[in-house]
Every structure is written in C-alpha cells, then in structure tokens.
Amino acid sequence: MKISKKQSVKKLNFNTLKFSGIILFVCLLLTQVNVFSQTKKGEKTCIECHKNTVKKDILHGPTATDCTVCHVSNGAKHPLENVTGFKFLEEGANLCYSCHEETQAEFKKKYIHKPVKKGKCTECHDVHSSNNKNFILEQSPALCFTCHEDFEKAEETAISIHKPSFDGKSCMICHTPHASNQKRLLVENSKQLCLNCHNKTITENDREIANIGKQLDESSHIHKALKKRCTSCHNAHFSNKNKQLLKETYPLGNYAKGLEDNYTLCFNCHDTDLLNLKNTTTATEFRDGDRNLHFLHLNKDKGRTCTNCHDVHSANNTKLIAKTRKFGRWSMPLKFSENENGGTCTGCHKALTYKR
Ligand code: HEC
Ligand code: HEC
Ligand code: HEC
Ligand code: HEC
Ligand code: HEC
Ligand code: HEC
Ligand code: HEC
Ligand code: HEC
Ligand code: HEC
Ligand code: HEC
Ligand code: HEC
Predict the structure, then answer these.
(1) What pTM, to 2 d.p., does this model score?
(2) What is the mean pLDDT of residues 27-31?
(3) Co-location of 56 and 74 in the same domain
(4) Whose CA is nearest to atom 17 of ligand 6?
(5) Residues 163 and 128 in one domain
(6) Rounded to the nearest whole angstrom, what is the distance from the C-alpha of residue 9 to the centroid of ligand 11?
(7) Which residues lie with the beta carbon below 6 Å from any ligand 8 atom?
(8) Which of 76, 102, 207, 243 has the fewest CB atoms found within 10 Å of its own CB?
(9) 96 & 127 share domain
(10) What's a Gene Ontology MF term here (predicted)?
(11) Residues lining ligand 3, judged by CB closer than 6 Å?
C-alpha cells in the first residue's frame, strides 16, 4: 500500500535563523538562554514570563531563537494590563509562509482544505512547542475529529465501519491535511487507493474478504459503475444504511422481498421497470417473449436477489452474469450460456432457456 510521502520543508531561506533542520529540546534551550538576550539588563526574558510557550518537548525553530521574528513590538511597553504590546509580522498563513516558502508553493493545488485556505494553520498546529512531530495539536484521527465530529460518532453508531478509517494513521492513509490535486484531498486516484489494499484477500475475524483487484484483472466485463471509482456504491468510511459499507439499501443474502426499497443501491442508476413490470418488450432483455424474467425471479416475498445471477464488480460473462453463486457452503455453478436472442442457465434449476 502506498502512503503519501511526508513532504518535509526543504531548504528554507532564513537570514536570521542559522540552524534550519535542528529541533531543540527544552532542556537544551534552557542552557542556552542567551538566544533570548535582547532584553536590557535586569529585565526578564520573554520565556521567563511565558513558560508555556516552551513547555513541550519539541520547539519550533524560531520559538527557540527569537520570539520577535513573529511578534513584533508595536511600540507599547510590555506587559501592561489591557495593552497589546505586539502585532504579528504578518497575519494568518502569511506569517508561516514568510519562512515556509516551499510549503506555500506546495499548498497551491487544485483542492485546498478549508482551514488551510482560510489561513487557520493554528487550528491544527501549535506554533510554539509541541509533544507531536510536525507540531500538530493531536495525532490523526483525533485531530480530524475536532472538526469532523460525525466521524467519531460513527465509530459507535454506524451499521458498518471501514477499519482503516479508524485504526492507526487512519485518515492520513487516504487524505492529505492540506491540499491535493485529487478531489476530496485524496493522496491519489480514488479507485487506485482502494485497490492498493483490495488487491489481496483480506482475512478479518476469520472471514475472507475477496480480492477485488484480482477479480477485475481477470474479468472481461467490468461494471461501468466502477469504471472511475468504487465510492459510487461504497462509503470509504462507514455506512449508516447497510453492511459492507454500502451507501444504500441492498439485500446481502440470497433472498429478499421484491420491493424497490430493498434495492435502492441499484435503482439509483437502473430503471425500476425491470423489477416491476410483469410483461414488457422494452424494460429488460432478460425475458421470454414478453415475460419479464427479472420480475419472475425477483418479484415475490422470497425473491432471488440480483447477486444470485450478477457479480456486481465484474465477470467473464456478458451482462455481468456470475460464474458461481455462494449457497451456504456450496459455490453453485450457474453455467450461463448465451443463445441466439436469449440464454440458458443451470444451477437452481435444470437448464432453462429464455428467448426474446
Ligand atoms: C521565522 C521563520 C518561521 C516561521 C514564521 C514559521 N516557521 Fe515553521 N519552521 C521554521 C524552521 C526554521 C523550522 C525547522 C525546519 C527544518 O527542520 O527543516 C520549522 C519547522 C516547522 C514544522 C516542522 C516540519 C518541518 O518542516 O520540519 C512545521 C509543521 C512548521 N514549522 C509549521 C509552521 C507554521 C504552521 C507556521 C505559522 C504559524 C510556521 N511554521 C511559521 C521556521 C519558521
Ligand atoms: C514580565 C513578564 C513578561 C515579559 C518579560 C513578557 N511578557 Fe508577554 N505578556 C505578559 C503578560 C502578563 C501578558 C498578558 C497576559 C497573557 O496574555 O498571558 C502578556 C501577553 C503577551 C502577548 C499577548 C498580548 C499582546 O500583548 O500581544 C504576547 C504576544 C506576548 N506577551 C509576547 C511577549 C514577548 C514576545 C515577550 C518578549 C519580547 C514578552 N511577551 C515578554 C508578561 C510578560
Ligand atoms: C513562528 C512565529 C511565532 C514565534 C517564533 C512565536 N510565536 Fe507566539 N504566537 C504566534 C502565533 C501565530 C500566535 C497565535 C496563536 C493562535 O492563534 O493560537 C502566538 C500567540 C502567542 C501568545 C498568546 C497566546 C498564547 O498562545 O499564549 C503569546 C503569549 C506568545 N505567542 C508568546 C510567544 C513567546 C514568548 C515566544 C518566544 C518564546 C513566541 N510567542 C514565539 C507565533 C509565534
Ligand atoms: C487540518 C489540520 C491542519 C491544518 C489546518 C494545517 N496543517 Fe500542517 N500539518 C497537519 C498534519 C496532520 C501534518 C503532518 C503530516 C504528516 O505527518 O504527513 C502537517 C504537517 C505540516 C508541515 C510539515 C510537513 C509538510 O507537509 O510539509 C508543515 C510545514 C505544515 N504542516 C504547515 C502548515 C501551514 C503553513 C498551515 C496553514 C497554511 C497548515 N500546516 C495547516 C495538519 C494541518
Ligand atoms: C479546524 C477544523 C478542521 C480540522 C481540524 C479538519 N478539518 Fe477537514 N474540513 C474542515 C472544513 C471546514 C471542511 C469543509 C467542509 C465543507 O465544505 O462542507 C473540511 C473538509 C474536509 C474534506 C473534504 C474536502 C472536499 O474537497 O470536499 C476532507 C477530505 C477533510 N476535511 C479531511 C480532514 C482530515 C483528514 C483531517 C485531519 C487531518 C481534517 N479534515 C481536519 C475543517 C477541518
Ligand atoms: C480508505 C481511504 C480513506 C480513509 C482511511 C479516510 N477517507 Fe475520507 N474519503 C475517502 C474517499 C475515497 C472519499 C471520497 C468519497 C467520494 O468519492 O464520495 C473521502 C471523503 C471524505 C470527506 C468528504 C465528505 C464525505 O464524507 O465524502 C471527508 C470530510 C473525509 N473523507 C474525512 C475523513 C476523515 C476525518 C477520516 C479519518 C477519520 C477519513 N476521511 C479517512 C477515503 C478515505
Ligand atoms: C489501508 C488499506 C485499505 C484501503 C486503502 C481500503 N481498504 Fe477496504 N478494507 C480494508 C480492510 C483491512 C478491511 C477489512 C476490515 C473491515 O471490514 O473494515 C476492508 C474492508 C472493506 C470492505 C468490506 C467491509 C465489510 O464489512 O465486509 C469494503 C466494501 C471495502 N473495504 C471497500 C473499500 C473501498 C471502497 C476503498 C477505497 C475508498 C477501500 N476499501 C480502501 C483495508 C483497506
Ligand atoms: C455497483 C456497486 C458497487 C461498486 C461500484 C463497487 N462495489 Fe464492492 N460491493 C458491492 C456489493 C453489492 C457488495 C456485496 C456483494 C455481495 O453480497 O455479493 C460489494 C462487496 C465488496 C467487498 C466485500 C467482498 C467480500 O468478500 O465480502 C469489497 C472488498 C468491495 N466490494 C470492494 C470494492 C472495490 C475495491 C470497488 C472498486 C474497485 C467496489 N467494491 C465497487 C457493490 C459495489
Ligand atoms: C453508479 C451507477 C450504478 C449503480 C449504483 C449500479 N449500476 Fe449497474 N450499470 C451502471 C452502468 C452505467 C451500466 C452500463 C449500462 C450500459 O452500458 O448501458 C451498468 C450495467 C449493469 C449491468 C449490465 C452489464 C452490461 O454488460 O451491460 C448489470 C447486470 C448491472 N449494471 C447490475 C447492477 C446491480 C445489480 C446493481 C446494484 C447492486 C447496479 N448495477 C448498480 C451503473 C450503475
Ligand atoms: C435469475 C437471474 C437474475 C437475477 C436475480 C437478476 N438478473 Fe439482471 N439479468 C439477468 C440476465 C440473464 C440478464 C441478461 C439478459 C440478456 O441480455 O440476455 C440480465 C440483465 C440485466 C441488466 C442489463 C439490462 C437488461 O435488463 O437487460 C441489468 C441492468 C440487470 N440485469 C440488473 C439487475 C438487477 C438490478 C437485479 C436485482 C434487482 C437483477 N438484475 C437480478 C439475470 C438476472
Ligand atoms: C437462485 C436460484 C435461481 C437462479 C440462480 C436462476 N434461477 Fe431461473 N428460476 C428459479 C426459480 C425458483 C424459478 C421458478 C420461478 C417460478 O416459477 O416462480 C425460475 C424460473 C426460470 C425460468 C422460467 C421457467 C418457466 O418457464 O417457468 C427461466 C427461463 C429461468 N429461470 C432462467 C434462468 C436463467 C437464464 C438463469 C441464469 C442467469 C437463472 N434462471 C438463474 C431460480 C433461479
């Protein structure tokens, strides 16, 4: 699996800071307070009064050097009650960009995370010191949950959750926090991202999850719904509607009542006539004369679900007709063949043929 490369700040152009690349630790700093010696004799240094700014393990370069590279005196004596003594050299992100020139260039991508666009770097970064690498306030996913609360709630309440969205580096496996040329701040092409992991069989709690990548590679027919992305049917994070991260209703067993509402997933893109019309010569090709065989198989209290016959991802038969269907422990062969103007199947029944 590919994970976005951490892009480090490269050669920063500092005239005032000579130790680019070095992160000083507090203990080290305290033995070198001479870097804060601009104050007149007898006057306290900034950090003597503002211990909090240097309290954490990793110091931001300029904080370790000179507070006034960012906080510029506005002339007022400091500290005075209710009097502001400083202004920022620059406001918002421009303050950061004044040194992190390459970062600014990097963030100029097609899609920019809203807080980054608004220059709210300090919503995620501590500018002074931090216990986390890159001065982030918290690690992902906790950092992301501070604004994307619904994700945190979902872990408890959703019908299905996608493990990588909540484990380990979670959000950062698939997203960049700043900007991307891919929609939704993805680290790479949406479909490829899924296939980075789903190019092998995954075993989860003794359950085997099929190798979708291999299946696509070995199929002559790919469902057009997944030409561009998997997320036309799956949610990448969690689903409040269905198991298997499906965005809409779809019955996952072999049987279901033949109601549109049970198949919202498919009928988002396909016409419901194939389910509802008992007789038709236009709504579907799966018919014997004008007898709609979709209707025949589906439209009952115990109707046969689509995946009894179709493989929703890809297949080697036309019309995504599956090679086999799981029936409990049995992988039942469908033995579908196309005939002139129709087809034949064995499996649930002896060879039965339809002709349009
Ligand atoms: C006065 C110059 C200066 C300003 C202003 C500044 N930084 Fe930095 N920053 C540095 C230096 C120097 C480093 C250490 C670079 C290195 O290790 O290569 C650094 C490192 C970092 C790092 C650690 C990752 C890295 O590239 O090593 C982050 C994150 C960071 N700064 C964020 C910010 C943010 C956010 C702002 C604005 C609120 C900001 N900086 C403003 C000079 C500055
Ligand atoms: C004698 C103690 C003392 C010293 C020395 C001191 N400060 Fe402060 N500073 C305070 C107090 C008190 C406040 C107001 C309460 C607060 O916000 O923490 C304050 C507030 C601030 C603020 C926020 C309000 C404002 O005025 O903009 C900044 C920024 C600041 N100090 C920066 C600095 C810098 C930079 C230095 C060193 C050049 C410095 N301080 C030196 C005590 C001090
Ligand atoms: C890289 C730029 C930068 C440097 C260097 C820097 N600060 Fe700040 N400081 C900021 C920014 C930006 C904020 C506003 C933080 C926010 O919005 O959360 C701030 C806020 C503050 C505040 C008010 C709020 C708070 O966090 O307590 C104080 C006080 C302060 N700084 C003191 C200092 C002192 C003392 C130093 C040197 C030890 C220092 N700063 C070095 C950028 C800097
Ligand atoms: C939504 C949260 C968030 C916001 C907002 C944000 N950052 Fe970051 N930033 C992160 C995280 C998380 C990382 C760590 C990335 C990693 O580990 O791959 C990071 C890393 C960095 C780094 C070091 C690595 C790199 O990607 O170059 C710099 C520099 C940086 N941020 C600067 C900024 C600046 C400047 C802003 C404001 C324009 C900003 N960030 C806004 C979350 C954020
Ligand atoms: C400071 C608040 C804040 C934090 C922290 C935050 N986000 Fe966001 N995020 C937003 C806002 C605001 C939007 C825009 C929402 C909208 O337009 O409806 C957004 C949108 C997004 C989007 C959709 C972008 C798009 O193009 O539609 C993604 C993906 C995202 N955030 C991921 C993350 C990740 C990953 C993290 C943690 C590293 C994170 N966010 C942390 C505020 C935040
Ligand atoms: C397995 C990859 C993956 C992981 C892990 C992941 N996302 Fe996403 N995320 C996506 C994809 C793909 C989309 C685009 C969905 C689409 O095409 O509609 C997306 C979209 C989003 C959006 C836009 C709105 C939406 O819901 O579609 C937000 C916000 C977001 N992600 C936040 C997060 C947060 C926060 C985390 C961590 C808790 C996270 N993501 C983890 C792949 C991922
Ligand atoms: C970092 C690896 C990784 C990435 C990237 C990834 N997955 Fe997964 N996926 C897993 C793992 C591990 C499981 C098994 C654990 C689970 O069910 O969440 C899984 C399970 C699933 C399941 C079955 C869920 C169930 O309950 O049966 C679906 C569907 C799925 N992923 C779709 C996607 C889609 C769509 C994408 C792209 C947006 C994607 N995955 C990206 C690792 C990944
Ligand atoms: C047309 C809708 C649709 C699209 C698009 C789609 N899926 Fe699925 N996916 C499903 C359905 C429906 C199931 C449940 C299948 C079943 O019960 O046989 C499923 C099941 C899965 C499973 C679980 C398999 C198992 O063995 O439990 C994974 C993993 C998965 N899909 C990954 C993907 C990936 C990766 C993509 C993109 C390459 C993708 N899906 C695109 C509808 C879709
Ligand atoms: C995001 C839209 C979308 C969703 C959701 C969707 N499909 Fe499709 N499906 C398509 C498109 C587009 C085609 C191609 C139609 C064409 O070429 O005329 C297609 C074709 C098919 C075909 C015929 C394949 C062929 O070779 O002509 C079958 C069978 C099929 N879909 C079944 C399903 C089933 C079952 C579901 C629900 C699990 C579903 N589809 C959900 C978009 C979708
Ligand atoms: C009993 C097996 C079976 C079931 C169950 C089934 N189909 Fe089909 N379906 C077929 C066959 C066979 C064809 C191919 C007809 C032809 O072209 O000869 C087909 C064709 C299609 C097509 C291509 C357009 C058309 O109608 O000819 C779509 C779309 C489709 N099915 C969707 C679905 C959906 C959605 C479901 C579930 C709601 C479903 N099918 C359930 C056997 C089935
Ligand atoms: C899940 C089991 C199942 C599968 C798979 C299945 N069928 Fe059927 N099929 C049935 C049942 C049950 C009936 C009888 C329905 C009734 O009469 O109520 C039937 C009836 C038929 C009939 C009508 C026979 C008649 O004249 O009454 C034809 C034709 C047919 N199936 C063709 C197919 C084709 C072609 C496929 C493969 C794409 C297929 N079937 C797959 C269960 C299945």
Answers:
(1) 0.92
(2) 39
(3) yes
(4) 231
(5) no
(6) 64
(7) 191, 194-195, 198, 209-210, 212, 223, 225-226, 230, 232-234, 244, 246, 250, 252, 307, 312-313
(8) 207
(9) yes
(10) oxidoreductase activity
(11) 46-47, 50, 52-54, 60, 62-63, 67, 69-71, 95, 122, 127-128
Tens-digit pLDDT profile for residues 93-104: 999 999 999 999
| Cβ atoms 190, 231 nearer than 8 A | yes
- Is 153 in the same domain as 118? no
DSSP 13-64: --SS---TT---BHHHHHTTGGGGTTSPTTSPPHHHH-GGGG-SSEE-HHHH
Cβ-Cβ contacts under 8 Å for 67 (sequence gap 6 or more): 36, 46, 47, 50, 53
Longest dimension (CA), the chain: 101
Phi, psi of 255 (to 5 degrees): -130, 150
> Do 246 and 323 share a domain, yes or no?
yes
Choose the final residue of a domain: 120, 136, 152. 136
Map tokens 């005939």 to a residue: 339
Protein residues with CB under 6 Å of any ligand 9 atom:
221, 223-225, 232-233, 250, 265-266, 268-270, 306, 310, 312, 318-320
Same structural domain, 143 and 123: no
Does the C-beta of 54 come closer than 6 Å to ligand 10? Answer: no
Domain of residue 346: give its range.
221-355
In tens, the pLDDT along 65-113 reads 899 999 999 999 999 999 999 999 999 999 999 999 999 999 999 999 9
State the sign of the Cα–Cα–Cα–Cα dihedral 147, 153, 159, 165: positive
Give 238's contacts (C-beta < 8 A, 6+ positions apart): 151, 154, 155, 158, 160, 161, 162, 165, 245
